[in-house]
Amino acid sequence: MSYEAYFQSIREQQLDELKQWLSIPSISALSAHKADLNKAAEWLADTLTRAGLENVEVHQTGGHPIVYADHLHAPGKPTVLVYGHYDVQPVDPLHLWTTPPFEPDIRDGKLYARGATDDKGQVFLHIKAIEAILKQEEKLPVNIKLCIEGEEEISSRSLPPFLTANRDKLASDVILISDTSLLEPGKPAISTGLRGLCSLEVTVNTANTDLHSGSFGGGVPNALHALVSLLATLHDDQGGVSVDGFYEGVPELSSLMREEFAKQMLDEDQLKASLGLDSLYGEDGFSFVERVGARPTLELNGVYGGFQGEGTKTVIPKEAHAKITCRLVGDQDPQDILDKIKRHLEKHIQPGAKLQIKDGEKARAFNIDPSDRMLQLAADAYEDVYGTRALFTKDGGSIPIVETFSRELAAPVVMMGFGLPDENLHAPNEHFNLENFDKGLLTIVSFLKRL
Amino acid sequence: MSYEAYFQSIREQQLDELKQWLSIPSISALSAHKADLNKAAEWLADTLTRAGLENVEVHQTGGHPIVYADHLHAPGKPTVLVYGHYDVQPVDPLHLWTTPPFEPDIRDGKLYARGATDDKGQVFLHIKAIEAILKQEEKLPVNIKLCIEGEEEISSRSLPPFLTANRDKLASDVILISDTSLLEPGKPAISTGLRGLCSLEVTVNTANTDLHSGSFGGGVPNALHALVSLLATLHDDQGGVSVDGFYEGVPELSSLMREEFAKQMLDEDQLKASLGLDSLYGEDGFSFVERVGARPTLELNGVYGGFQGEGTKTVIPKEAHAKITCRLVGDQDPQDILDKIKRHLEKHIQPGAKLQIKDGEKARAFNIDPSDRMLQLAADAYEDVYGTRALFTKDGGSIPIVETFSRELAAPVVMMGFGLPDENLHAPNEHFNLENFDKGLLTIVSFLKRL
């Protein structure tokens, strides 16, 4: 039976199986979901065992478990390490979901659920591709290791020590990751770069109590005024970041890179229309693809303080909060960027307001040369299934562990993504287009056989 | 029996009675509390009836009920209209209350509860002062009307039409209101001015969905960036309001007014210490008392958007919100100010972001001449009880209906407050100092008898 026929014959059953996994609310950022992370890890371990993988382990960490499995019966053949994650992002604002985030629903050929594309759905493809080869051919053409973690959305805190402690066990010739996207339907891409990340939380305090705006208004500092005027100093009015030294280590865009970006032929008008935007926004002199692929950012992810209820409350709030993340490129060092932002904030905070800053995640940017043989083989595999060769792109997201993997295991990383850019990662109504579910299975099979 | 002895003899019983009223969570801003507003109005009507007042009515409105009562058996004597409110402010942040806001608790001679000082506690004084005179002397020295509403904290929407429709019924020689404060313990004050108020809610929208900051960060507008940079344009860095024409109609401070303000002898260092502030904040060239008493403000009461949970969420929010109120003085017109703010916001909103603005409350500032006979009699009454004459001050707060009352009924308004400035109005741990509970009862008796 062809692989295509094989996968078609058990499609419903496999989707039902994936839905089970997606029903587990494994939100790593919320400690209330700790048990769900364990449940999602156990579900994964069972599924790996049933798929024919060996040495399946649920490795406990200080955070959420890492699941390992392998199948090492192809002596002399390359070893592939598959990395992915079973944790998901928070789901608020919940009221914007058409169907509940943890009650997977298929509509118009798309599977809707938190984690459908990021990343349970894509990890599932690898398990089912391996199972398929084992069922069809009784052996694998390569040696396989899988390392699936539960802390990707909270900066993979436990993975680096696990990796260092298990360097021999994880040693591989190529690291294979499906946690990125096609450029658009039918247009596959292999990411040759990821942005780094750093995050911080800022709190501004003024008086020791909320105050009545009648009795005190005009005469005391307002924590929201202080925070808002502080945050407004972080950008210039062209979207650039105004923090001193922020752009040190950011590479100039070569004309070669600009050509590569231009090949993506992103239609900015279509993008605007699909996002309901009158205009895009960002640094002058760069296209959207360049801004996202090759430029660093500083984003406000959350700002809050004072009264949020119905109606009016004439209060002067005593505290206000901001959550900030930066995407980093080139040689920007996350700790150095955090230090620069802190200095900027301390310099610009208004008199009478007190500033507290808490560091969060830190990850360096990652880059790989597209001419690497493993990347070329991956492009061949895409061509087998999609009928078109993958483009080599830079991805704006961060998978913090990729840079660590590549450095620690000294192996090339193939980012073979099957998502789509409009699948609402980290937003309400996340989904996975099932066309790429079907083609993803075949592409992975093809890649493993080509190795 | 002296009034002092009378009130002492039933002090516990009266405080228990007040506690019952304070236990009813009559938060007018939250529609979920609708039934509690009715309950608080019914409680008030019963208490008025038991106190000996007549024609007690719970008048239903489109919002919360207005409670009316009178006692009109002193022909040829002046008629006093007592105004107050039984609605209270919201209570969040709840975790900052030492005891629950609707479980009244007496500690260190202070009664803690939402509404203790603003304004149930102060309304209660009038009822019990009238009851005392009726019990002690079997008649009142004046004619009395009471008009107690349930929408003061949400801008008294139903009262103006009630007032217009019942102008004859409410006609009086003086309007008596206890909803303000002494300057400090033992230092009574009669407010001769209130600031006006206007409010608005601002929403900024960007894309039609929250976006992943990796896939889109740097290339699309962020609703929080747009809101924060917009709000930052509303003030200069001296605390002044930057909206074009905002200060039109604001009177210059005469040297006479400055002298009057200076008499309050507010110790700014002590104020800073009590609020836990390193420094006060406000327009250059004005003292704290002047800033609050004679200058207009524009305050952010709430700002929110994006992720507010635990940890990090790398999201670009699609919407962000701000709640804004202004305190107005002199001839500033609330609608005109709202229009000016709207023009400012529309002018400064960044490209790619959409702005929605919703009008809220509107009230003009109020002022009265301190030489009015009714104000002088009130100062005498304070002197009888506190041993010191009340100062004539300007109050920074707004009681929107006062200006309407004064205009519609063409009568002087005596603002005879018994609160204290640090009693946490509109904030956690609101309380009422019982020294002023005791003295308030006697001062009201004295005022009614002096008329």
TrEMBL record, chains A, B:
<keyword id="KW-0378">Hydrolase</keyword>
<dbReference type="InterPro" id="IPR011650">
    <property type="entry name" value="Peptidase_M20_dimer"/>
</dbReference>
<keyword id="KW-0479">Metal-binding</keyword>
<protein>
    <submittedName>
        <fullName>Acetylornithine deacetylase/succinyl-diaminopimelate desuccinylase-like protein</fullName>
    </submittedName>
</protein>
<keyword id="KW-0645">Protease</keyword>
<dbReference type="InterPro" id="IPR002933">
    <property type="entry name" value="Peptidase_M20"/>
</dbReference>
<dbReference type="GO" id="GO:0008233">
    <property type="term" value="F:peptidase activity"/>
</dbReference>
<dbReference type="GO" id="GO:0046872">
    <property type="term" value="F:metal ion binding"/>
</dbReference>
<dbReference type="Pfam" id="PF07687">
    <property type="entry name" value="M20_dimer"/>
</dbReference>
<feature type="domain" description="Peptidase M20 dimerisation">
    <location>
        <begin position="192"/>
        <end position="350"/>
    </location>
</feature>
<dbReference type="InterPro" id="IPR051458">
    <property type="entry name" value="Cyt/Met_Dipeptidase"/>
</dbReference>
<dbReference type="GO" id="GO:0006508">
    <property type="term" value="P:proteolysis"/>
</dbReference>
<dbReference type="Pfam" id="PF01546">
    <property type="entry name" value="Peptidase_M20"/>
</dbReference>
